[in-house]
Amino acid sequence: MFFRKKRKVRRKGDERLLEEIDGLKESLDQQKAMLAHSSDYQDHLLYKSKLTEAKYLFLLKEIRHRRTSKIR
């Protein structure tokens, strides 16, 4: 009985992690496109993009560590 609850909690955490990484990937792509198309180079956009990329890579590492995938 205890193990069922543990799997359910892990599955919810995995789903939340996958949703979060999808959102970060979309945000990162938008920020990179904005940087590529902007003629006026702004430092805060670059820093924000690097921060988003760091978060994305951290979550990607966490997904690999937890052996999570979208296909089950």
TrEMBL record:
Protein's UniProt name: DUF2508 family protein
Domain of life: Bacteria
Pfam families: DUF2508 (PF10704)
InterPro entries referenced in this protein's UniProt entry, alphabetically: DUF2508
